[in-house]
Amino acid sequence: MRTPYGFEPGCASRAFVRACVAMAIAAMPAASANAGGNFTLSSTDFSDGGKVGPRQIFNDAGCNGPNQSPGLTWRNAPTGTRSFAITIFDRDAPGRGWWHWAVANLPAQVTSLPENASASGALRKLGAIEARNDFNVDGYGGPCPPPGNPHRYVVTVYALRIDALPLAQGRPAALFDREISGSALASAQLTVTYGR
């Protein structure tokens, strides 16, 4: 039970207030502590709330795009970040949604990816690993929803508290997501749409 001021009962006396405040601050998630403001994600190819560009569209299943992963940049990662991970998820796909991309083990000093990092080999050079997406292909698989209403694609970068997730290249994206979520300090997102 907490007192009206949020302290535990043992912290209610003046002698313990300072110690309790210090403990509460130490227990706060690391995501609240960063050097330059909020953890943010931006893209040279996507704008939050905008539409997916033609270069990022999938190249199969009735779609004819170049299937290039988007260029991404993130800033103000929280203190304690030791690596990054990225996912792209279609929240409007039937059933459980659709995983388009999951990348993990990006070194902490990396704060951007160029367009087409998935297919170009840039991720391998960084030591990163990619999941098998729901098209059953390792790496990036761009949007290609069935004809009808546009779908929303959530692009998320995660700051992780560990250097590397215990995963291997080509494991299912849902497994990547579970491991990423368990090690995340903070995340930043943007959402884009695409329909045909």
From TrEMBL:
SUPFAM superfamilies: PEBP-like (SSF49777). InterPro entries: PEBP (IPR008914), PEBP-like_sf (IPR036610), YbhB_YbcL/LppC-like (IPR005247). This is Phospholipid-binding protein, PBP family. Residues 1-35 form the signal peptide. NCBIfam families: YbhB/YbcL family Raf kinase inhibitor-like protein. Pfam families: PBP. Keywords: Signal. The keyword Signal applies. Transmembrane segments: none annotated.
